[in-house]
Amino acid sequence: MKKRKTAGLGILLGMTALLFCGCKEKEIPEKLHVGITYYDQSDTYMNELIGSIKESLKETENDKLEVTVTIRDAAGLQKNQNDQVEELLDEGCNILCVNLVDRADPSEIIDFAREREVPIIFFNREPVAEDLHQWDKLYYVGADAKQSGKLQGELAVDLIKENSQIDKNKDGKIQYVVLEGEMGHQDAIIRTENAVNTLKENGIEVEKLSCKIANWKRAQAQNRMEQIIGEYQNKIELVLSNNDEMALGAVDAYKKLNYTSAALPVFLGIDGTEIGLQAVEDGELWGTVYNDKKGQADAIAKLATALITGEGMEDISFKNERYVYLPYYKVTAENLAEFRQGTFVTK
Ligand code: BGC
Ligand code: CA
Fold first, then answer.
1. pLDDT under 50 in the chain at which residues?
2. In ligand 1, which atom is closest to the CA atom of 99?
3. Ion ligand 2: protein residues whose beta carbon lies under 5 Å
4. Nearest bound ligand to the CA of residue 276
5. Alpha helices of the chain — where are they, by DSSP H?
6. pLDDT tens digits, residue range 169-192?
7. How far apart are CA 166 and CA 346, in angstroms?
8. Residues 6+ apart with CB under 8 A from 55
9. Quick check: 160 and 167 in contact, CB under 8 A?
10. Residues enclosing ligand 1, CB less than 6 A?
11. Which residues touch 74 (CB under 8 Å, ≥6 apart)?
């Protein structure tokens, strides 16, 4: 009697186990819980990039993969960001996407993630190579700063060669001003250097009047530009700005001082933000260089998925094993629509 009871129990247990395993294979999807923290929510380009990342992550969801995204704003303080990373890990994130406040200071974040074996995809603010090699689960997704500078330079070269009016005082040189992003950011000095070198390499004689840091911000750029105009008045022929926001700040300065359009220099930005593209359409910026937010967002989503599911890693093209760089594109009024509609041809 006792024997039969145990046998019956055994069969019951066996059936339950079978049922359970069967369900598991069919119905329980893998979970991708992404914790994102970015350096400052007042940054126009970053907000657009974060929006694209959210969208791309949601697009990767299917019946085999459940995706949750948690986003934090570090409000410009590395200390905040370190705390946020700890919280995101406590909440169970299994992938971190970090846009560092201080790109030279990722060690604490790396230590937290490493303790829990959670990979980090850094983006937009590139850690130095030494830090990215602290652990083999660290990645970077961004764009090549050098290329953006070169393309901005080429936009200027083409315009100057086609249009003798740019050299307003006809001295054979282009008097230019630079508005630079944050000190220490890979996209600041490198963009400036490459833009200016491209002009020189293409036989354009240039004269630098001024270079001021405006930390990617429109209002700061307006303020710096007002000072520069105060000093150089009508002598300025070209404004090279490390991003669209600061280029628009420069435009604001001229508007405030009631300059007529004939007296304006040429303004060039980088990013192709919504407002930047609008300014190209309106003729306020001559051109910009598209910083492919959707391309970067898709690359982040693809990498995050591959890291969790173990599938698709071989489709990602890495540079130096763990870096992914998306190309930039030149934008002028001529090809603007492609960037608005996202139909530009990727290289
Ligand atoms: C963009 C800037 C932005 C910065 C933030 C750069 O790549 O061009 O507009 O402010 O990233 O890190
Ligand atoms: Ca000149």
1. 1-3, 23-24
2. 12
3. 167, 169, 171, 173, 175
4. 1
5. 2-27, 44-59, 78-90, 107-115, 129-132, 145-162, 189-201, 218-232, 244-256, 274-281, 293-309, 336-341
6. 999 999 999 999 999 999 999 999
7. 31
8. 294, 297
9. yes
10. 43, 45-46, 124-125, 187, 216, 243, 245, 270-271, 291
11. 37, 38, 39, 40, 80, 81, 84, 101
Q: Report residue 204 as tokens.
A: 């354009």
Helices 107-115 + 78-90 axis angle, to 10: 10
Ligand 1 probe mutation, 243, 325, 331, most atoms within 8 A of CB: 243
Which residues have CB under 8 Å from 144's CB, separation 6+?
Answer: 325, 327, 328
- Global pTM reads 0.92
> 117: number of CA atoms within 13 Å, CB side?
2
The ligand whose atoms approach the alpha carbon of 144 most closely is 1
- Strands 238-241 and 174-180, by their bridges, are parallel
- pLDDT by residue (tens digit) across 116-154? 999 999 999 999 999 999 999 999 999 999 999 999 999
Look at residue 6 in the predicted model and tell me its pLDDT.
Answer: 52
pLDDT at position 14 is 52
Please give the C-alpha separations between residue 89 and each of 22, 116, 136, in angstroms, as whole numbers: 31, 8, 18
Cα(144)–Cα(148) distance, rounded to whole angstroms? Answer: 7
Rounded to whole angstroms, the Cα distance separating 224 from 226 reads: 5
Distance, in Å, from the CA atom of 188 to the CA atom of 179, rounded to the nearest integer, reads 9
What is the predicted pLDDT for the residue at 318?
97
Compute the distance from residue 247 Cα to the ligand 2 centre, in Å.
20
Sheet with 30-38, edge to edge strand ranges: 65-73, 30-38, 95-98, 120-123, 138-143, 323-326
The ligand placed nearest to the CA atom of residue 175 is 2
